[in-house]
Amino acid sequence: MLKFKEYLQNISTISDKEFEETISYFSEKHLHKGDFFIKQFSVCRQVGFIIKGTIRIYYINQKDEETTYGFCQENCLTTSFKSFISQTPSDLILQALEDTDLLTIDYDKLNLLYKNYPTWQNIGRIITQNEFLNMEQYASVLNNETAKEKYLRLLKEQPNVLQKANIEDIASYLGVTRRTLSRIRQKIYQK
Amino acid sequence: MLKFKEYLQNISTISDKEFEETISYFSEKHLHKGDFFIKQFSVCRQVGFIIKGTIRIYYINQKDEETTYGFCQENCLTTSFKSFISQTPSDLILQALEDTDLLTIDYDKLNLLYKNYPTWQNIGRIITQNEFLNMEQYASVLNNETAKEKYLRLLKEQPNVLQKANIEDIASYLGVTRRTLSRIRQKIYQK
DNA sequence: GTAATTTGAGGACATTTGTCCTTTTTGTTC
DNA sequence: GAACAAAAAGGACAAATGTCCTCAAATTAC
Fold this sequence. Notes:
Mean pLDDT of chain A: 93
Largest interface: A-B, 20 and 20 residues
Structural class of chain A: alpha+beta
Oligomer: homodimer
Shape of chain A: elongated
Number of helices of chain A: 9
Strand order of the largest sheet of chain A: 1-8-3-6
CATH topology of the largest domain in chain A: Jelly Rolls
């Protein structure tokens, strides 16, 4: 809860009283390893704030291959944003890589927050803008970083993901085959 | 003007009177071939609606190579969105590939529109969401389409861009070198 | 603990792409 | 129209990546 309060205070000012009231709109959710937060083709009805654990975000393309968008961990928001804002079936799949605790809010309750608290209108707009910036950053990485650079960044920023995810997941995150990932690791660790 | 009205009406309902008033917040701008709508590192102060012409959006990466994000043409909004919303220096460069006519609105005037017209708050939110969806679509293309597929889509959706842009631009849009683009064309046109 | 199964490492070869060129084509100037 | 310049096509080889394997290590089941 404390971390969530910090998270919101980084976005906008929120009083203790408002936070207390806000928190009553949220629920807690526990996922076991392998559980889905959002399944493919289901309408995403919730946004989650990760208290503890790891979520892998991925989708399955036309050739039946999994492409991993990324991994969300502690103190991050996680949702299938497009599905959530448009309340349409989700292309993205969100799955727990390990036991994960979340603070969640439903679509309707979030809209109540927007309606009842001017602060939340502000928070909502900024979160939407942040989602845009994240997506832009993601596209920029796809354009500019080699698979090796992406691997090194993952190693730096989310080293524990390398333990929790399997080779297949990491390779699909890097946009290469297992074989190439194997070669990347060889170069990094043997020199 | 008519096209712009249609564009807005597709987003939200806007009365004739509101549109008349709205249009007074906009200016017309004419770019010659090669002119910049937004230069690198300048703060983007305007959003443009293209009446006629073609804008290439690109940036220059750490290795001094140009990467082309895409090409905007008639009846599309064009801006360096991140720079515009945050009023910070732009990574993206927007340049006219041919003589281009735009309807433009300044940052301050847009905020006046938001303030004075509830309709525009709605339009603004939806445009922001659309920008997110566009960026997501862009990332999805980067992940899923081969250079050849991208070329064929360009050929289908914006065939005239292939005349207006040079090989270098198109190759950087596809994410390959000139040599590979040459091979792609060879395969497409000789079989 | 042993056997069976899953997962990661890496060999061999084919395919693709990039680099560095030269040649050809197109467009421009006088 | 000839001469020049600019842009695109494409040859030759090197480097990177994918495909299809096998083998070793780790994990799980009994």
